């Protein structure tokens, strides 16, 4: 497109592929608005970039437009069709008339449509309702005309439908049909919008509740929805065999009777596998009803995978069914903890075992105070992404109250009880002198397991106990945790012990102690009994067992 091209203003016509359209001087002032030429946005953009803003500024021969980037003959043909449609409005209105039509109020400006004296109010939510040809099937010609003019939504329609009759081949009857279809679509759209708004308000109301309140609300909805078949009378006399089986098993379980698949199959005269298939099929059909509750519980469980919400399926048939459906959705209810979890049953068992093993390691031979238990459970929960309360509940089931002392492991042995007693004496204790006190403490912790002082002392004298409590001096024992050991020195002595064993020159712990007695005493090991105990605890793996068989090995 060059400067020498004759314009439409100069020639008074447009020529394209042997087709010539006369353009009056009035039509030359028609602006090239994007909404009027919506099917050729690329061509229109290129024209406007070159200062071509009206029909009169176009080249008379449209072949000149082929020089524009990304513009082909198809685009030019579409442009010419749109131009012809514009020229066909009314009895050849002037460009000024066309501009006035474009400037008349639209629906999104007025909020209503008028046709034949009837006024239809349009809410803002309907302004973006699209005028799909598949929806307005009775007036395809009119929707095509609207599309050509870039009118694709209700908000861009003229507020007065009288204007639609100015389009070529669009009459009163067609506009009336379009009007009736539009009213029907607007009613449907408003109903859909109101439902969405109600759902949104309900969702907002839910979000203002706590997680527990949300779950409760969802449960109440489900109970109301299922009331027709979960009530005792309705369930018992149901014609649905799956409901009969579910109710039969629930009632037997609440009565403390057998409720296995085999027993249910025998009662209904079918196989165990058939019972399972019928029940699972029914539960899967109910999953859609429970989807909102499932989502709510999954969100509540979150990263920690556990959520406390007491549930009583044994007292409510509907709750029993809900629990079974949720189980299919990988939501397990742990009745003894009153917690829901997204973990699998295998993972739950593994978690329980890991916590119990940790408790055994942490609290064997230890009296646990309430504050100590709380702090430890909090730390364990943080390190393993578990709620502190879950760890605490398992801990309280693993521990037992020991009088006024605190908590101890429920499976504590006499050995462990004696260790707990010795922990109460950081400086050590002379057992014969304080035997009555020690016995009282031991029985207070164990619930009276020790009948005599002799029984308590027999534990202290066990060989395996020497690594737990050291015989510090005559009849004085001290717990190993109160003795700081120089491991470097100890390992040096072990090397000498092994060397002497190989030469068969050492015979007893006294001999070993004598090797470095001064250094050992300076390091806080006062005698051979303590040396023996610390060797057993810290270095038994370094002793050559064939030379010293009395040492206990790891």
Written description of the protein model:
By secondary structure, the protein is mostly helical. Helices cover 51% and strands 8% of the residues. The protein has helices spanning 8-11, 41-49, 73-87, 95-103, 107-110, 140-148, 172-207, 211-225, 227-230, 232-236, 241-254, 261-268, 272-285, 291-301, 317-328, 345-363, 370-383, 388-398, 414-423, 435-446, 453-460, 487-503, 509-515, 517-522, 528-539; strands spanning 13-16, 19-22, 112-115, 118-121, 306-308, 332-334, 339-341, 399-402, 406-409, 429-430, 469-473, 476-479. The protein has a three-stranded antiparallel beta sheet. Strands 10-12-11 form a three-stranded antiparallel beta sheet. Strands 1-2 form a two-stranded antiparallel sheet. A hairpin with a 3-residue loop joins strand 8 (399-402) and strand 9 (406-409). Helix 17 (370-383) packs across helix 18 (388-398).
């Amino acid at each position: 497109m060059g400067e020498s091209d004759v314009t439409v203003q100069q020639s008074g016509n447009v020529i394209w592929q042997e087709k010539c359209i006369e353009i009056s001087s009035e039509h030359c002032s028609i602006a090239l608005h994007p909404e009027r030429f919506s099917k050729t946005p690329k061509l229109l953009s290129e024209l406007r970039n070159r200062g071509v803003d009206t029909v009169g500024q176009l080249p008379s021969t449209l072949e000149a437009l082929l020089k524009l980037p990304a513009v082909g003959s198809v685009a030019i043909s579409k442009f010419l069709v749109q131009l012809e449609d514009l020229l066909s409005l009314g009895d050849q209105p002037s460009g000024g008339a066309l501009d006035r039509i474009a400037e008349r109020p639209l629906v999104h400006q007025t909020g209503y449509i008028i046709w034949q004296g009837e006024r239809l109010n349009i809410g803002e939510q309907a302004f973006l309702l699209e005028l799909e040809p598949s929806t307005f099937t009775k007036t395809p010609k009119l929707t095509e005309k609207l599309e050509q003019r870039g009118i694709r939504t209700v908000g861009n329609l003229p507020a007065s439908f009288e204007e639609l009759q100015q389009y070529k081949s669009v009459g009163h009857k067609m506009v009336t049909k379009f009007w009736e279809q539009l009213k029907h679509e607007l009613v449907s759209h408003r109903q859909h919008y109101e439902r969405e708004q109600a759902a949104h308000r309900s969702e907002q109301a839910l979000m203002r509740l706590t997680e527990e309140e949300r779950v409760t609300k969802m449960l109440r909805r489900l109970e109301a929805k299922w009331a027709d078949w979960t009530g005792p009378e309705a369930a018992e006399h149901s014609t649905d065999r799956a409901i009969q089986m579910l109710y039969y098993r629930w009632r037997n379980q609440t009565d403390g009777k057998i409720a296995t698949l085999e027993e249910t199959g025998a009662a209904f005269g079918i196989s165990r596998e058939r019972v399972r298939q019928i029940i699972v099929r029914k539960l899967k059909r109910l999953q859609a009803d429970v989807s909102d509750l499932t989502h709510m519980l999954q969100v509540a469980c979150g990263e920690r995978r556990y959520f406390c919400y007491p549930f009583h399926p044994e007292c409510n048939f509907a709750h029993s069914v809900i629990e079974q459906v949720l189980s299919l959705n990988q939501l397990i209810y742990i009745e003894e903890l009153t917690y829901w979890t997204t973990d699998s049953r295998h993972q739950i068992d593994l978690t329980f075992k890991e916590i119990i093993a940790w408790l055994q390691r942490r609290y064997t031979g230890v009296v646990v105070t309430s504050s100590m238990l709380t702090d430890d459970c909090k730390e364990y929960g943080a390190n393993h992404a578990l709620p502190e309360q879950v760890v605490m509940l398992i801990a309280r089931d693993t521990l037992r109250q020991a009088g006024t002392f605190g908590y101890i492991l429920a499976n504590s042995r006499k050995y462990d009880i004696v260790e707990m007693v010795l922990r109460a004496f950081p400086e050590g204790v002379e057992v014969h002198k304080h035997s009555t006190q020690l016995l009282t403490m031991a029985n207070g912790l164990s619930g009276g397991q020790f009948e005599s002082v002799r029984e308590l002392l027999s534990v202290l004298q066990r060989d395996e106990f020497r690594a737990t409590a050291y015989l510090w001096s005559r009849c004085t024992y001290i717990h190993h945790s109160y003795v700081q050991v120089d491991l470097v020195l100890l390992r040096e002595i072990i090397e000498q012990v092994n060397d002497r064993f190989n030469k068969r020159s050492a015979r007893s712990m006294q001999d070993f102690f004598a090797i470095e007695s001064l250094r050992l005493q300076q390091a806080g090991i006062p005698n051979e009994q303590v040396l023996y105990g610390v060797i057993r605890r810290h270095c038994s793996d370094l002793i050559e067992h064939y030379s010293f068989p009395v040492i206990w090995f790891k």
